[in-house]
Amino acid sequence: MKGSIQVDPTEQIAAIDNRIYGSFIEQLGRAVYEGIYQPEHPAADEDGFRKDVIAAVRQLKVPIIRYPGGNFVSQYNWEDGIGPKDERPTRLNLAWRQIETNQFGLHEFMKWAEKAGAKANMAVNLGTRGIEDAAHLVEYCNFPRGTYYSDLRRRNGRSQPFAIHTWCLGNEMDGPWEIGMQTANEYGHLANETAKAMKRVDESIELVACGSSSIENPTFGEWEKTVLDQCYDNVDYLSLHRYYGYYNDDDPAELDNYLGKNIDLNQFIKGVVAICDAVKARKRTKKTINLSFDEWNVWYHSNKADTRIKPWQTAPHLLEDIYNFEDALLVGSLLITLLKNSDRVKIACLAQLVNVIAPIMTENDGGVWQQSIFYPFLQVADYGRGVALSSHVETETYHSREFDAVPFLDSIAVYNDNAAEVVVFAENKSQTETLDFTINFKELRPVSIAEATQFAGYAPKADNRDGRMRIRPLTDVRLNNSEAAATLQPLSWNMFRFKL
Ligand code: AHR
Fold first, then answer.
1. 20 to 30 A Cα–Cα from 20, which one of 85, 196, 236, 353?
2. Mean pLDDT value across the chain
3. For residues 146 and 250, what is the distance between their CA atoms, to the nearest angstrom?
4. Can you give the pLDDT at residue 408?
């Protein structure tokens, strides 16, 4: 089979906002306790943070991390997590029915994020709390001094403001599972009033309003429109959430279908963009609302095991999906789709980061290991920086249960002026055939191949618990003036870096 991509630097989608490589830490399962924070572990630093986890997060170059939820935030009192640790209350985490000791809170997260090289994307509780509490939190974090909450922060050991720029107005407020679920009208009104108050405290912040928790939610579409009708002028982004699952995993035809799920992601994004722009047109405003895809990933492997977990533990093994090779291929394709929509998707958070549906796993008494999905994320976050090109792709397609025409070849090129590089990501979704891949350069004349790699050769169901998965060199790549060529293995994720 053959396939090609045209790399034309004049055909630009957008400058990629690096926050598209964000992630998410929720006070859930073992993400925090026994994940990023484990004072009794031999790898813990003076703050109780696991240094081995920080090293793995730094490797992924995650620029922004959403915190503290997720569903957790809708019942969270941020004040419980500040001040002397021995005075903090232990609470019931109603979202996940586990015990929250509050030994890790706002200051710990901000310090940890700094050590991990990331900024915070802070969510406020719009489930059980509201305007006043959210404004106090902004004051606590961002106001310099001389007021009740800013001075409280200073007394708690942080003299300089945290200067948090990006904030989420609640989480999944349309979801029946959410504590404090609301109708679109109720949420739109509350989001608007809360946004006003938060921006009065600090007008430099930017705000993300909740879109639907899922495209499958019956109110999808109507929710986005109604919410934006009310809060358009005071918010900057609308959120999207999407998780993919694969339920009949013994059927090879289902794998074909699974690998086509990025088509669903693309349609979802385009649909939400259309709604945002319809509201814009009706309001006759110049302001554009961009998207924060603040939860995305594969999530299904742990569903059954989670039903057997006893409630009211401190760090239960919840949502601990063990990812396999086919999940890594889907994640690669989802990343390409996010890049293809980088004109409107400005923030995205792989959900989540450690232990909970995560690329990084910890052993309680041992080290850290990387899941299969770590690898495509690592490469795109590292080298997918610069300008996304609209790169025309030619490929054969296949038909699957849900999708009429899934391209066998999924590919995008990124032009990185700073590094004088063009990077091409390419995935071959065929289970059986190699793909003769041609990269046609328009105008550009690369002088050399800096790197060519493949992530391939693993059984679809293989996972990385034994730590054997590796990105390997892709050999026999030919570069000839305006064209490069290589053979992509069946079921393979590939990356090419060309020096200009
Ligand atoms: O990421 C796990 C959960 O998925 C989040 O808490 C929630 O927002 C979503 O439903």
1. 196
2. 97
3. 63
4. 98
Region at 365 (left for phi over 0; alpha for psi -120 to 50; beta for the rest): alpha
Nearby residues of 460 by Cβ (< 8 Å), 6 or more positions away: 255, 324, 325, 326, 431, 491
Q: DSSP code of 12?
A: E
CA–CA separation, 245 vs 104, rounded Å? 31
Residue type at 422 in one-letter notation: V
- Mutating to test ligand 1, I would choose from 171, 296, 306 the residue with most ligand atoms within 8 A of its C-beta, which is 171
Sheet containing 421-428: order of strands: 12-15, 387-389, 409-416, 421-428, 492-499, 448-455, 472-473
Q: Per DSSP, what are the bridge partners of residue 291? A: 238, 345
Q: Using CA atoms, how far apart are residues 435 and 204, in angstroms rounded to an integer? A: 49
CA of 71 to the centre of ligand 1 (A): 6
Residue with tokens 């009706």: 282
Instruction: For residue 351, give every residue at least 6 positions away whose Cβ sits within 8 Å of its Cβ, in sequence order, or none.
Output: 23, 24, 70, 241, 243, 294, 295, 296, 297, 299, 357
Residue nearest to atom 9 of ligand 1 (CA): 70
Active site residue 295: yes
Catalytic residue, candidates 34, 172, 178, 320 = 172
CA 298 to CA 246: how far, in whole Å?
9
Ligand 1, CB cutoff 6 Å, lining residues: 26, 69-71, 171-172, 213, 295, 351-352
Q: Report how far ligand 1's centroid is from the alpha carbon of 210 (Å).
A: 13
- Which segments of 158-303 are extended strands (E)? 166-169, 206-209, 237-244, 290-298
| Residues facing 24 on adjacent strands | 66
Specify the 3-state DSSP secondary structure of 244.
Answer: strand
- Give tens-digit pLDDT for 298-337: 999 999 999 999 999 999 999 999 999 999 999 999 999 9
- How many CB atoms lie under 10 A from the CB of residue 201? 20
Average pLDDT over residues 342-365: 97
Q: Which of 90, 96, 82 has its CA nearest to residue 27?
A: 96
Give the model's pLDDT for residue 443. 87
| DSSP code for 50 | B
**Ligand 1 atom closest to residue 69's alpha carbon, by position in its atom list:** 6
**CA 477 to centroid of ligand 1, rounded, Å:** 42
pTM of the model: 0.97
The residue written with tokens 């394709």 in the block is 333
Clarify whether 326 is annotated catalytic.
no
Give CA separation, 155 vs 24, 107, 148, in Å.
28, 12, 10
